Amino acid sequence: MSLRKRVSLRNTLAFRLTLWYAGIFTVSSCIAFLLFYTLITSFFHDRTNQELLGQVNRFSTLFAAEGIESVKNAAVIEAQAAGVKKVFFRLLALNGQAFSSSNMSYWKDIPISETAIKELLRVNHPVFETISIQGRSEEVRILYAFLGPAIILQVGQAMESYSRFLDAFKGIFITTMTLLIVLAAGVGWFMARRAVSGVEAVTRTAQKISGGTLEERVPVKARGDEIDQLALTFNQMLDRIQTLLTEIKEMSDNIAHDLRSPITRIRGIAEVTLTTGRSLGEYETMAASTIEECDRLLGMINTMLMISRTESGIAPLSCEEIDLTGLVREACDLFQITAEDKGVSLSCNGPDQIHFAGDIRMLQRMLSNLIDNAIKYTPTGGSVTVSVSENDAQDVVSVKDTGIGISPGDLPRIFERFYRCDQSRDQAGIGLGLSLARAIARVHGGDITAKSGLNQGSTFTVTLPKDAKRIGPACRRQA
Ligand code: ADP
């Protein structure tokens, strides 16, 4: 494994999770062991204490009944019976001087503790101590207690079996712990790898995408866990990006197409005039046509800019109190002549007044686009009805026509920039009017919806919320 790979492995989440897992496991096991070890040790000490106190009681009773000589004999016999390497008895004067004992050949290194005797004399209560003898592994538990007013009994008991048990316990613990830590690290590594494998899949997909393949998606395991949520969200984000990119591509194709036509026309006019034109009048006609085409181009570019600025909320809205019914009536009046010229009846209805806070110029533009479309896409003999109404929550403007209608396939796309339905291509237009209308409705906190069917007429409904809190932020600032 190269150094770089080792360093990067140490930085991985899986490695750190494994370390944490193994670390927590080790620390908790050690705490459990220490608790258990302390409990066992104190249990053994208690048991030994009880045994030593039992010896003292028996010897005290014997001393009281039969005197010191019987105690001396009993000490020898008792130690012999229990095993001279297990127990010893020593009779001491108050100054700590031994005057009798059991067989002490094995215990000759056991000292008589002055401190313990002083403590016994002070508290007049049995005193325990535990000592280790140099060169031997086991410990000795010793008890000092009064046998009579001036006689002290020192009883000692080897704790060899207990020490052996504790040593075995320690040995088993260390071996088991070593194996368990290795196992815990293995299990931790496996679990951590499993947990982060989903994240790795997301990373791999992201890498492939940055390499240029936007079709890639993260596999979703359907476990319903956080990783699946991440994968789903990531895939949704990719779907959205892909849709946006497709839209941007279509839009730039449309822009290129729509810009190319007027530029080609301008170039054609200029070329024809240059090659064939002789008179001043012909040059004036060329200049006029060029200005006309340039105005069209500028109009298109300005509309695009206005849509972008309105959608992003940076268009300078100038909000004021307006009468929405009045605004709708004015728009109808403006288009009356166009409608009459085309043989389409245009009517307008609504209450006397509806108060609304909004940008009057923008709202005029929105209404113009909708009414213009309705007349444009309604054949002679048809009708267009513009209605305005209000309820507690919102004002509603609807523009209904009996025109060519929109197919179900086109309906979801008509608000996209530059989108035009096939059946309306013979009409003038660039496919930006509805995008702008919707951007204006939205910046006022509302929206536009369309209902239509092919050859069944169309209804465009604008909803504008009354509540100042729900209108667009730019308008709210000034309302
Ligand atoms: P355009 O300049 O082409 O009218 P719009 O953005 O205003 O652009 O409209 C987009 C497309 O939606 C139109 O090209 C047309 O196909 C369709 N459309 C809009 N309004 C209507 C309507 N009232 N009736 C039928 N089709 C409509």
Name the descriptors.
11 helices, alpha+beta, 479 residues, rod-shaped, disordered N terminus
Task: Give the overall shape.
Answer: rod-shaped
- Identify the strand order in the major beta sheet: 2-1-5-4-3
Question: What is the structural class?
Answer: alpha+beta
Note the main sheet: 5 strands, antiparallel
Mean pLDDT: 86
DSSP summary: helix tally? 11
Show unreliable segments.
1-7
Number of DSSP E strands: 12
Helical fraction equals 55-70%
Task: Estimate the strand proportion.
Answer: 15-25%
**Gap between N and C termini:** 67 Å
Q: H/E element string?
A: HHHEEHEEEHHHEHEEHEEHEEH
**Radius of gyration of CA atoms, rounded to a whole number:** 50 Å
Bound compounds, each kind once, are: adenosine-5'-diphosphate
Give a topology summary.
Blueprint: H1 3-10, H2 13-66, H3 68-82, E1 87-92, E2 98-101, H4 114-123, E3 127-132, E4 139-148, E5 151-158, H5 160-210, H6 226-276, H7 280-312, E6 319-323, H8 324-342, E7 345-349, E8 355-359, H9 360-376, E9 383-390, E10 394-401, H10 433-443, E11 447-452, E12 458-465, H11 473-478
Parallel strand pairs: 7-9
Antiparallel strand pairs: 1-2, 1-5, 3-4, 4-5, 6-8, 9-10, 10-12, 11-12
Bound molecules: adenosine-5'-diphosphate.
